[in-house]
DNA sequence: AATTAGCACTCTGCCTGATCGAGTGCTAAT
DNA sequence: ATTAGCACTCGATCAGGCAGAGTGCTAATT
């Protein structure tokens, strides 16, 4: 099926894809004929297109309409034919403004970037921050929040702050809390959260033999706070952009499915999951994407990192008929920009 | 124009509104005639409807179609005709689940409620938490976040936690920070954030005369952290529900405007602003709502409070053709539920 | 052997006119 | 004051016709 194409076939496929990306209409042989570098008549193009259809790269919505690329066609295009366009310097400049003044917290940076990217690309932009847990703890503090609640504040390497409320029966004096605090800090600093959890588990086992009440309490509070791991933050910007796409506006069912997906955090997480670990950009086209029930969207995503470790991923969600040659460099650049901004914190 | 109606006129208006809410189609005289308690022929109904049209309560999309209520018509209906339906006990039960187990933080409660309300009503639900600043501080803590950043964590009365990063040149020893901490706490506890800001401003003026370096530092950090006031959190759930409404699906322009509004925090804040202070439910119909450019939506909202002071508001956003008799009790009950849950924290 | 001109064919989009039905407004009868 | 009757209007729906875009196939051309 997905054989390698000769030069002409490749050029025709490329032109069909690009025209379809631009117009969202089926593309006819005449149109391609005019665009070909080598002058060929529509009739010849028709033959070539028929071949491409046989190979599964194109299809016809109905007899005697032009052709549109299939998922496989887009895939071939992205893999082999895409002329990676240079990022416009204006776009680059604009994006660099994420480093703007008032932005202090790391998650503000990420959010900012997402908003910008959605504006530039005219697609919905999703950022996931899911790897807090890979960052080492810089400090951990327990604060009294109310008589029966304690607040744990964790500051991670690189500007991330997380807090959690823990329920606890009252009866802990302030100085005791402080003691517990320093116990925990001693144990925690330099570890990642999962490492800390492990450590606490171990200590708890040992601690049965010892009799330090506060130490036991410290371990207990720690394990409570770390009981469920944090699934990660998801921010979506530019949802309204999906209405720019005629294919979505014309089909309310698709629209519904997409908007619903946006409301489910874990759907989004699954969509961007594969991008997380790798540096390279990921493109999943239509049915390729890991979420069933969303066969009409493509996701272009890339992980970003902080120092050595992966932090999360950023991606654009749009129709299969995306302008990959523009969108891929955009996402790529934004992700690397994020990484470099986050590095210096 | 908006005169008081006699019994018959009122009943006709009510029936038209209710039928239109149900069907989203223009309502004809025959339909009303059949539904009237007092048996009247379509012809008579037509006369009455013509009167109602003259008074501005109804209008015809075109000659020889049925009639639909105008904004004023809906307003009259909501003010005088609405039979406030009892809340289904199943709905009530479901809503009470917000008190469910694992929910510890106050904002989780709020979010939970919002999600439930959007599911029950099949509309988009918005919650605003904007009155942190009315809550007294329970404690305030400064933590070292990195060499040049300090984290301020404020725990407010009633389970709200806020943190802010402040940039600061390095050079503060840990014990100095702790000293500053206790200065601030002494000053802050029991005050609201704006009160604290005021107080700090005052102290700063006085402090010029004195020479305590740390105290000055404390004031400086405090004023930095409180420089811009927190605008408030906005959560929106059930955006996809707006696609349930035929009037929005048929007109992409409306859809775009609404989705865009959802992306602008301050638009949402303005929409729900009036509900904030008052206990009573607010209904703003179509062009009545405080945001221009959204003449096709209605907002049903209510403030919720914590103890004495207003905390925020919760509301549903839907088409003008909303089922007010169902939606109003829903919002009302949810708001009061929120208030009572928040009270006990 | 590859390309292309020519042609018949198919399908969509769009316009037109006809018909149907729902609903109205008016008038005259009750 | 109410209503029956009637003419009228307008939207929705459907069939028919036409134009245009595009195809596939075949036979001629290079």
Query: Major sheet of chain A: order of its strands?
Result: 7-3-10-9-8
Give the structural class of chain A.
alpha+beta
Shape of chain A: elongated
Radius of gyration of chain A: 26 Å
What is the beta-strand fraction of chain A? Answer: 15-25%
> Could you report the average pLDDT of chain A, rounded to the nearest whole number?
89
The greatest inter-chain interface is formed by: A-B, 33 and 33 residues
**H/E series of chain A:** HHHEEHHHEEEEHHHEHHHEEEH
End-to-end Cα distance of chain A, whole Å, is 50 Å
Number of DSSP strand runs of chain A: 10
Unreliable spans of chain A are: none
Largest β-sheet summary of chain A: 5 strands, antiparallel
How many helices of chain A in DSSP terms?
A: 13
Into which percent range does the helicity of residues of chain A fall? Answer: 40-55%
Oligomeric state of shown chains: homodimer
Describe it.
The structure is a homodimer of 345-residue chains. Chain A has 345 residues and is an alpha+beta fold. Helix content of chain A is 47%, strand content 19%. A 5-stranded antiparallel sheet of chain A has the order 7-3-10-9-8, with helices on both faces. A 3-stranded antiparallel sheet of chain A has the order 4-5-6. Chain A has a two-stranded antiparallel ribbon with strand order 1-2. In chain A, helix 2 crosses helix 3 and helix 5 packs parallel to helix 13. At the A-B interface, strand 4, strand 5, strand 6 and helix 11 of A face strand 4, strand 5, strand 6 and helix 11 of B. Chain A binds a DNA duplex (30 and 30 nucleotides) through helix 3.
């Amino acid at each position: 099926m997905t054989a390698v194409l000769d030069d002409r076939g490749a050029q025709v496929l490329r032109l069909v894809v690009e025209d379809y990306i631009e117009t969202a209409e089926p593309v006819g042989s005449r149109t391609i004929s005019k665009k070909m570098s080598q002058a060929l008549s529509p009739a010849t193009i028709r033959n070539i297109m028929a071949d491409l259809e046989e190979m599964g790269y194109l299809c016809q919505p109905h007899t005697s309409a032009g052709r549109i690329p299939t998922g496989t066609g887009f895939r071939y295009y992205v893999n082999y034919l895409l002329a990676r366009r240079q990022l416009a310097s204006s776009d680059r400049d604009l994006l660099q403004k994420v480093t703007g003044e008032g932005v202090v917290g790391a998650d503000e940076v990420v959010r900012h970037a997402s908003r910008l990217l959605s504006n530039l690309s005219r697609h919905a932009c999703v950022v996931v921050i899911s790897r807090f847990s890979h960052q080492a703890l810089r400090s951990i503090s327990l604060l009294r929040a109310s008589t029966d609640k304690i607040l744990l504040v964790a500051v991670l390497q690189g500007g991330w702050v997380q807090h959690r409320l823990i329920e606890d029966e009252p009866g802990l004096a302030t100085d005791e809390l402080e003691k517990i605090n320093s116990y925990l800090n001693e144990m925690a600093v330099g570890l990642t959260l999962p490492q800390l959890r492990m450590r606490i588990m171990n200590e708890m086992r040992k601690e049965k033999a010892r009799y330090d009440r506060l130490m036991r309490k410290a371990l207990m509070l720690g394990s409570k706070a770390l009981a469920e791991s944090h699934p990660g933050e998801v921010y979506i910007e530019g949802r309204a952009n999906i209405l720019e796409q005629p294919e979505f506006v014309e089909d309310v069912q698709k629209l519904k499915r997409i908007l619903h997906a946006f409301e489910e955090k874990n759907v989004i997480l699954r969509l961007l999951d594969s991008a997380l670990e790798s540096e390279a950009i990921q493109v999943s086209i239509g049915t390729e994407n890991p979420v069933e029930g969303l066969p009409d969207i493509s996701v272009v995503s890339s992980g970003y990192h902080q120092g050595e470790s992966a932090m999360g991923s950023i991606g654009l969600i749009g129709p299969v008929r995306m302008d990959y040659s523009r969108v891929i460099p955009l996402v790529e650049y934004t992700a690397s920009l994020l990484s470099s901004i986050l590095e210096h914190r």
